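Researcher: Here's my situation. A collaborator sent me these components and asked whether they could plausibly form a single complex. I don't have experimental data yet, so a predicted model of the whole assembly would be a useful starting point for our discussion.
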Amino acid sequence: MLIEEKAKLFKALSDPNRLRILKMLQIRKLCVCEITEVLDLATSTVSEHLSVLKKAGFIIEEKDGKWVNYMINTGSSDTVVASMLSMLPFWISSDPAVSSDLNKINSVDRNNLCSR
Amino acid sequence: MLIEEKAKLFKALSDPNRLRILKMLQIRKLCVCEITEVLDLATSTVSEHLSVLKKAGFIIEEKDGKWVNYMINTGSSDTVVASMLSMLPFWISSDPAVSSDLNKINSVDRNNLCSR
DNA sequence: ATTAAATTTCGGTGTATAACGAAATGAAAT
DNA sequence: ATTTCATTTCGTTATACACCGAAATTTAAT
């Protein structure tokens, strides 16, 4: 694999909001509007972050009715992707924003979120 | 450690030229003009890349007469920095540009390089 | 079929950054 | 002290990207 592509993998991880998304998805699969609610960003912004993570191979998507579920790509054959995903729980654990995020996704419910 | 700072660590690794520099420094310590010769960039550009890697904690510098030697920071207490440095040899091994770099640093000599 | 809702794509804006050459800095040799 | 040489800093330019709101798309429900 070319070094430019490895660099792109690290670039995908170089944004705090994308790291927060990965941490949340390591708890459970989430739709765009749930992530949007927690991060307090525009839906389009979250969608673009998800697109970056997906292109890099860190996450995959799954259609679920009117929602799109995003989840961690546990089956990646790329060594970097696989190791990064397995290291993330140890590397990022005590950040206050992340802790708050992980609390929120327990109470977040896609059925009364998006159209208010 | 805040997640913004973790993101910065990945950002430091998100540039192909900086990855190439790290790979070279894992062979031996190098001065700015040697790295410049191998990467074929402006000296100022290389200096800035080194500054990014140093601020992130991946490398350290050492004065050596009129030269400045840069070397891998093997003593980092940051888990991410330490693991990334130890993983790099496995993650990036077969890239043609990197292989060429590693060959070049064997023949590169700071004493007849910079002022030609 | 039409409407409604979730998501993606698009256009625009401001900021970050990779690159360069030139000027400034610092150290060594004359 | 002055010159030389390696490196850093600065000013500039071009590109990348994070963000938003609006428009387009896709899917579900009426």
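Model: Some features of this prediction you could bring to your collaborator: The interface with chain B takes residues 1-4, 6-8, 10-11, 13-16, 19-20, 79-80, 83, 87, 90-92, 94-98 of chain A (CB under 8 Å). The two ends of chain A are 46 Å apart (CA to CA).
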